[in-house]
Amino acid sequence: MTRPALLACALALASVAPAFAQTAAVERKEVGNRVTENVPAIPAELIDRLNRYQNTRGASVAGWTGDGCLLVSTRFAETSQAHRVCTPMGMREQLTFYPEPVGGLTPAPKDGWRDGFVFAKDKGGDEFSQLYWFDAQTRSSTLLTDGKRSQNGGTVLNHDGSLMAYASTARNGTDRDIWIRDTRAGTSRVLLQQGGNWGAMDFSPDGRQLLVSRYVSANESYPGVVDVATGKLEMFPIDGGKASFGGFAFAPDGKAVYFVSDEPFEGQPSEFQTLRYHDPASGKLVQLSDVPWDVDGFEVAEDGRHLAYITNEDGIYKLSVLALPSHRRVKLPELPVGVIGGLHFSPDGNRLAVTLNTASSPSDVHVIDLRSAKLERWTRSEVGGLDTSTFVTPTLVRFPTFDQVDGQPRTIPAFYYKPTKPAPANGRYPVVIDIHGGPEGQAVPYFSPDTQYLVNELGIAVLVPNVRGSSGYGKSYLKLDNAERREDSVKDIGALLDWIAQQPELDASRVGVTGGSYGGYMVLASLMNYPERIRAGVDVVGISDFTTFLNNTESYRRDLRRAEYGDERIPEMKAVFDRISPLKNASKIRSPLFVAQGRNDPRVPYTEAEQIVKAVRGNGQPVWFLMFNDEGHGFRKKANGDYFDAAAILFWQQHLLANEDK
């Protein structure tokens, strides 16, 4: 942090801490890369009880290799690495072995001139990911990017793997330019240097054109096409002037395109991002998805015979496959209710690999035979020897909030995990409200061992709301918390507290709140606004003041976040930030607080955690503090995640369960 920023932080703290307040005593411990303050020793009994839940693992598919095997990401030691699986339920052969997790796995295409895959890796969670090539023949890895303080990712390969496009901040550390690499010659060059946040989408079949998009916010993107030889950019017209776009891909003929957009269609406004087909030559424009929900992703088979896409219907994912070019729907097997991701067609185009995750089972890879409509499981991930039949599947509930839609109370969706074990003597379960980040994210019923432990072992009900500003419910809902309306999403938590109080099986006097990133801000804001109604809170890598956050987040993110939260350089917006700041209202936080952070976080700097801890303690309130010096925006190393989980469980035991009637 700069000297002026430090001074501003000190002045802010001075303004919120009464002169007579006594800072709570701090017991600081450093063990390896872990720093704790006032976190008690974790009891051995708790570690033993948690062990099986902490030894669950999942597997997600990244694509097919040239020999018909699947490239998957899974963890067998501390971090997720690349593995290969060649038969259904076959051995997972580990290919990469790094202390840091690898991601962005992009296998060579079926007609590629060499066999292997591209992957990304950073250092200590700093998110300055570098790209590497893993050669399947030699099992060696080669650095492809500058290896410096740059962010590189979004890899796209052309049909024979001779060209590789990716986004990089290497030029100035702020803008994401499009780079192109000649993989045969081993040379890279900037293809598109326009300023802003650009991403590569898809090469044309002949490799001469590249679809690109400039991302401004969740509500605004601008697609175009670049001539690979000359770098000439042609932007596409946008109906209505501004819209949100998802995927963009060339049709097999290389002339038409498939894309996801919320542009008006046939003169009618569109609330959701739908899948569309456009042939510029004929002017034909067709909307292919037929439900009033967002399309979350799609994939066109390399052989051009099929297209698969996913719709997100009230938090439940549905898969569809179309035959090309007729767009006729293909019969599919019934899939479990949950989250679907990682669409990848086999090299011969006859099979589709997907990642399936449900509330009661971790992610695993399945393959659909498109000819027989049969589903075959390729991985079976461990669940620590636990009986998955005891896991709780949530129900979707809706609770009324403070404002109205068409004269009726607006309702907010939430997933409700109700314990199966008997309620305490008072007949009511304590509650943890888990708020997602983003803020444009969406909570969906995915497998969470932490949630299952709270529900099954501790008898704590868990509510996971999608407050206003969440994606998945239309662009009007997405915009409801923007800029000066930020605190309206906090009011939704107040409405949820009202709903809890009306449920006969829930204990409104024992409610905790947890969340990460923007969800961490929501934790602090909820504690600030409802101090008498929330007993404790866990803030993970959360924002404590939007002004200091925007000043100190990495430069490549600053304008993107201003588009969502507001611009702190505008006096009126700065006044809003000051009014809703947990840091400047720390005296209102009177419940026990646990703050956890990664030291290398480029998104929400660790200073956001340190300043709120100091401010709350300055008012004499107890705070647990945890920081990992080898993590960033979240905890990706198993040992670190295990320690945090255990500490969080201990925190809930002490502050939600300690006075439970027996």
Taken together, the total number of domains comes to 3
CATH architecture of the largest domain, by name, is 3-Layer(aba) Sandwich
Strand order in space, largest sheet:
1-2-38-37-36-35-33-34-32-31
**Helix-residue proportion:** 10-25%
Spatial gap, N to C terminus: 49 Å
Structure classification: alpha+beta
Task: Tell me about the largest β-sheet.
Answer: 10 strands, mixed
| Percent of residues in beta strands | 35-45%
Organism: Luteimonas cucumeris
Keywords: Aminopeptidase, Hydrolase, Protease, Serine protease, Signal
Pfam family, one: Peptidase_S9
Domain Peptidase S9 prolyl oligopeptidase catalytic: 446-656
How would you describe this structure to a colleague?
With 662 residues, the protein is of the alpha+beta class. The chain has 3 domains: 36-53 and 387-657, 3-Layer(aba) Sandwich (Rossmann fold); 100-236, TolB, C-terminal domain (Neuraminidase, 6 Propeller); 237-381, TolB, C-terminal domain (Neuraminidase). Helix content is 19%, strand content 35%. It has 11 helices and 38 strands. The strands form 8 sheets. It has a 10-stranded mixed β-sheet with strand order 1-2-38-37-36-35-33-34-32-31, sandwiched between helices. Strands 3-4-5-6 form a 4-stranded antiparallel β-sheet, with no helix packed on it. Helix 2 packs across helix 11, helix 5 (486-501) crosses helix 6 (518-529) and helix 7 (546-552) packs antiparallel against helix 8 (555-565). The longest helix has 20 residues, at 638-657. The chain is globular and about 65 Å long. The protein starts with a helix and ends in a 5-residue tail after the last helix.
